[in-house]
Design goal:
329 residues, globular, outer membrane lipoprotein receptor (LolB), chain A, 26% strand, 7 helices, alpha+beta
């Protein structure tokens, strides 16, 4: 059984105890009053961070320290939604900017990597809408030399057997065209201005813009323009998308209005993840009032590069009109 221990000293009487307690309480109140400046309950003045003694916060994470020091900003009723929308809009804008810059950096790497090789050969596929008419897809054997810039094409489909040769600063700056089939056997070689109306009647882009490097440069130029728009287009990146069994990064750019981009509404680009070069581009324009099938009727061009050979050494005669295999005359 527990015992209650009591002091052996004699206890003061009740009156003396009350007087002593009152004196102690009064002293404590006086100390508090003169030591601290009184603040009204509604006074929410921000704390001066520089004047705060942080010794008691030593060892705590920075996030905890800041939470103890910085005032909390709480939006007024009705402002919550606008603040959330503003934050979401800024986050989206930053995401689009990052994606556009990422695409530019990858393509720039690809250009440098490709130009380590003097020339290359590749299978080129193109599908284009010209003067409102979507032409049949063409498959072309393409050979390109970087300097001096030279292009040789031979059609596998379409006008099968057609050949085109363009060598910078040769043949008076003209491209040489030998038609395919029976026409090519009997008709002479045609010399055309690469930017003339006759040459451009069958292609959306000049032969001087042919090849992977020129395509990459055009894409970079377009993305740099996008970055300067007041409202940047949506830009979505998807990695590890297979294209002809090669891992690629897919980039989809969509514009908000024709004011931002008069020609292109949507563009899809595949960038080879190892070579950093564009291997596939598919572009859509804006629909008209008569448009029924938007995806089908607004497709204006699609380009594809496959079976790329970089280490193949191409002889100088490849870029010469006199090459006996071409039979230009």
């Amino acid at each position: 059984m527990m015992r209650e221990y009591r002091s052996s000293k004699r206890q003061p009487n009740t009156r003396r105890r009350n007087v002593a307690a009152a004196m102690i309480a009064g002293g404590a109140l006086a100390f508090l009053y003169y030591s601290f400046e009184p603040v009204a309950a509604e006074d929410n003045r921000p704390v001066n961070i520089a004047s705060v003694d942080k010794t008691d916060l030593t060892g705590l994470p920075d996030s905890v320290i800041q939470s103890q020091i910085e005032p909390k900003l709480v939006p007024n009723p009705g402002e919550t939604e606008s603040v959330a929308n503003s934050t979401s809009s800024k986050a989206t804008e930053l995401t689009n900017r990052y994606a556009l810059l990422y695409m530019v950096s990858q393509l720039e790497r690809g250009i440098e990597k490709l130009k380590e090789h003097d020339c290359y050969s590749v299978t080129f596929e193109r599908l284009e809408r010209i003067e409102g008419v979507l032409h049949d897809q063409q498959e072309i054997d393409l050979k390109v030399r970087h300097a001096p810039f030279s292009v040789y094409m031979k059609w596998r489909s379409g006008d099968k057997g057609r050949q085109l040769l363009f060598t910078e600063k040769e043949n008076d700056g003209r491209m040489l065209v030998k038609l395919g089939g029976l026409k090519g056997r009997f008709l002479p070689t045609i010399k055309l201005d690469p930017k003339g109306s006759r040459a451009m009647a069958e292609s959306r882009h000049s032969v001087a813009q042919a090849g992977i490097v020129n395509l990459a440069r055009e894409l970079i130029l377009n993305r740099q323009k996008d970055l300067k728009l007041k409202q940047m287009p949506s830009c979505v990146i998807t990695e590890n998308v297979k294209f002809h069994k090669r891992p690629c990064t897919q980039v989809v750019v969509e514009y908000r209005s024709a004011t931002d981009s008069p020609v292109y509404r949507r563009t899809i680009t595949m960038i080879d993840e190892k070579l950093h070069i564009p291997v596939y581009v598919r572009n859509y324009t804006w629909p008209s009032e008569e448009t029924v099938d938007v995806e089908e009727e607004t497709l204006i061009e699609c380009y594809c590069f496959k079976d790329l050979h970089l280490n193949e050494q191409l002889a100088d005669v490849t870029w010469k009109k006199s090459n006996p295999r071409y039979r230009f005359r």
